Amino acid sequence: VHEHGVPNRSVLTTCAYCGVGCSFKAELQGDQVIRMVPHKDGGANEGHSCVKGRFAWGYATHKDRVTTPMIREKTTDPWKEVSWDEAIHYAAQRFRTIQEKHGKGSIGGITSSRCTNEEVYAVQKLIRAAFGNNNVDTCARVCHSPTGYGLKTTLGTSAGTQDFKSVEQSDVILVIGANPTDGHPVFASRMKKRLREGAKLIVADPRRIDLVRSPHVAASHHLQLRPGTNVALMNALAHVVVTEGLVDEAFVAERCEAREFDRWRTFVAEERNSPEALEEKTGVPADDVRAAARLYATGGNAAIYYGLGVTEHSQGSTMVMAMANLAMATGNIGREGVGINPLRGQNNVQGSCDMGSFPHEFSGYRHVSDDKVRTLFEGDWGVKLSPEPGLRIPNMFAAAVEGSFRGLFVQGEDIAQSDPNTRHVTAALEAMECIVVQDLFLNETAAYAHVFFPGTSFLEKDGTFTNAERRINRVRPVMAEKNGGMAEWDAVCRLARAMGYNMHYDSASDIMDEIARLTPTFKGVSFARLDREGSMQWPVDDAAPNGTPTMHVAGFVRGKGRFMITEYVPTEERTNRSFPLILTTGRILSQYNVGAQTRRTENSRWHEVDRLEIHPFDAEERGIADGDMVSIQSRMGAVTLPAMISERMPQGVVYTTFHHPTSGSNVITTDQSDWATNCPEYKVTAVQVARSNQP
Ligand code: SF4
């Protein structure tokens, strides 16, 4: 539909959607983008793309874009368009007033994984240096924070271990809680190619996702577990490895902490962790678990790929550590074709975490209480920094309701729609005295805001995104900023200055130079190098001047790999007679997250509403026919959606996507969250489903 006209120039840039990070040539006729052409030399995609990257860029020029800064005294007042200067000084004044009344720690901010590394870095610096506290968190809190905790604890750094190309060397591929066909299509194609060449596939997922059986690809094992039993399944797999003599003893002896390994070996060998003992809990036949464990441990190079079906659970961090245990025990880490790989949802989840978006860490995952690191940042930034970790997003909301947290800077993130337990979130937002939203559209969160900073789309940005394989890709401006020529990082710097902290850069490239100066894993990164040599995978340092496709080759980042005990603890969210079904969530190919972008493109034609997938028996029991409107009631609330009867679902489990605000699936998700990181348990909600009278 966009492909008309003859281009007279092109700009090489990076897709703004998923964590694959495909490179594209934006082809233009004058100032008009006429098509996006996948770049054949793109490190992540090698000329491939999906329907989102190729077609869903029209939101950049959508009529809903807000292009002028706006302010209002109260959220019931109409918005007033003002100059950038006025908006910035108004925001600064309100933030300062809050701090005078409630203290330095009464304000904070949230960074976005949709923004560039440079924009994210600027926001976390605004909070640490100008706000004077560490109350910065990221939207990754609600998706991959358990990856950060789990991989850092076991291996020493918070990142996937492989490049995407590595899958071409895999003999066994274990996909857990991910649906790459829809979520990461270009990587899925690469994976399917390897499967067609003969690699074996194990899928662990409650739903019969496309990979289980698609043209020319069939999983050897589909471990169709009950939602919420990931850790039990992983312990059962490990039990087989340990009790059937499948441990790679030489690897473990050389590469891992001996005492922790011995403790772990004893723990998983206990009979209560056997596939037979756990069969009733997981719902997976013990024989299947045994066969899958043998295949993973003895089938050659075995790689794990996982998604939010791993992390968005009350034991998300435990599960990440359980996967690391299994990979280390079988020697499946530290070379091509193996490893543990999070498939990141958003384009810059990896980057936003790398850039110091967590309340306890500076860029490069260094703790704020580390005196040496803090001194380094204090010297460079010329300001005293707090050694106390700040508030996480859920703690900010709790403190807002309780009265001690009163102001929030929200970068490109629709927290009112994407965070769990929407009612609690909106109560927190309503309680705040100043919310600044920096975004393209007046999203759901903006309804609670007092200041709106119009943002820039990826077609207007200059900077970098870091994809799921740690690849730092350049994002180049294809068109002029539509918001009066204000780069997002520049608006943030001006806000910092208005609050009394002198933060200034001449360009996004300047910001990257500072990142490289202060972050060892980015030491050799600069725009000049990226422009000259193409993308690079961090760490880029003296030991790896050209980057690092595979991590932990000679040793783990933490030295020796650390096995962790991964006791299975069932979620508090239980089914009962009132709520007998489990609701789990996911996405589809043509849409992206809460749909703020894709719904404003022609991709919306492919998916106009979210639907509830339900097994035929569960539907029949409730008198539900395909297409009927059904109400889904949880302990937290209710929503109404059309039903889609589907044998992809097991009995007792229902599923929906969350791309449309009207479906509001987060209205019904629970308060449960990962014990280590507070990542919400989106994947397990006990519900009842009934036919609705609503048309
Ligand atoms: Fe590539 Fe992901 Fe963009 Fe699709 S959405 S083009 S797979 S980066």
Automatic annotation (TrEMBL):
Keywords: 2Fe-2S, 4Fe-4S, Iron, Iron-sulfur, Metal-binding, Oxidoreductase, Repeat. Transmembrane segments: none annotated. The keyword ATP-binding does not apply. One of its GO terms (biological process) is respiratory electron transport chain. GO terms for cellular component: membrane; oxidoreductase complex. Residues 8-64 form the 4Fe-4S Mo/W bis-MGD-type domain. The keyword NADP does not apply. One of its GO terms (molecular function) is formate dehydrogenase (NAD+) activity. In the C-terminal section; belongs to the prokaryotic molybdopterin-containing oxidoreductase family. This is NAD-dependent formate dehydrogenase alpha subunit. It comes from Lutibaculum baratangense AMV1. The chain holds residues 234 to 928 of 952 of the full protein.
